[in-house]
Each structure stands twice: as C-alpha cells, then as structure tokens.
Amino acid sequence: MDAFPVSLPMLPAELKGPLPPTTLVLGGTRAGKSQFAESLIERHGKGLYLATAEAGDAEMAARIARHKARRGDTWSTLEEPLELAAALESRADPERPILVDCLTLWLSNLMHAGRDADAETSRLAKALPCSGPVVLVSNEVGLGIVPDNEMAREFRDHAGRLHQAIAERADLVIFVAAGIPLVLKRAA
Q: What superfamily in CATH does domain 17-186 come from?
C-alpha cells in the first residue's frame, strides 16, 4: 500500500519556514520520503511534480497511478525521464516549488538509455540551485549488501556519487527512516 500519513508536526520546528533553494530527501524503499517531500511543498501551495518514472510494465503503471491519485489536483505533473537538468532550468519559478521524484529512477533511466551517468550527474548538480525552490527525492541504496552483479554494483556506485554531488549543493538534506525525518545537513 502506498498511503502512509505524514503529519507536519513531525517536522522539526526549523523546517516549518520557507523552503530553502535546494532540499535533498533520502531514504529507503517505502520509508515515507515521497510523502514527506510532498508535505514540505504543500505548505507553500501548488507545486510542480517532476516525475522521472516510466511505466515499463503493469505494476509500475499502477504504482504511478496511485502516486498521482494520492497527490490530487494541487499538483501539476511533468514527466521527464532523462532531461532532468534542462527541465529544472526551464521550469524553475520562485512562486512554484518543484518536487523531483525520484533521482534513482532517473539514474536507472540514464543507464538503460546508455547515457553517461557521471556527466549527467554533473550537469544536474550545476543546475542547482535553480531560480525557485526544488526538493529532490532519492532512494539510499548504499546501506545494504554488495550487489551480486556488475550492473547493480555500477548503479549503486553511481547513486552514491549522485547523492554526494546533490547533497553538496543542497541547503538541506533529510534522511527519512520509518516515516521520521532526520536532518543530516542544514545550511547556516
């Protein structure tokens, strides 16, 4: 089930103000990171949901449909599986926060398309901060066992480098575990 109630009282007091220019929300699968990130933006009105997922099969199509239904009509959605930096640069607006969900699906798309993941990571990092607030969501995949095949190890390594690059540019980095946000970095 996708629905998991994330309440704003779970936000530390210092996170209840204006959104910083760049926020990175990390966490494991089904940890509550997407809904937490949505709650950050929903406090500020209508947001743009920049979705990186592609419906490659029926299960993923159903998952995408559930996410869209959960968000309701307070969100505009732009699907962009590959050109993330360009989408952020062209759509950033100080009056409308952007939620990117998620970076690890974007990375997977890049790898399947034969794109240079390190070059695209650099391009994305250089696009931050944007002219409006951006919240980026990603799966932390480096906390588990070492994958048993080369492609999975390559993905895990690229994801680690991607997270480091975005965290370096971010004003706020939050790790969500069991639906609870833990602040890892906060700009002064």
A: P-loop containing nucleotide triphosphate hydrolases (3.40.50.300)
pLDDT at 11: 63
Q: First CA to last CA across the chain, in angstroms? A: 38
Mean pLDDT, rounded, for 49-60: 88
Give the predicted TM-score (pTM) of the model: 0.91
Instruction: Tell me if residue 67 is catalytic.
Output: yes
**Alpha-carbon distances of 135 from 56, 65, 129, 160, rounded to whole Å:** 25, 21, 11, 18
Domain boundaries, given as residue ranges, for the chain = 17-186
Percent of the chain with pLDDT over 90: 68
Catalytic residue among 67, 112, 158, 163: 67
180 compared with 66, residue with greater pLDDT: 180
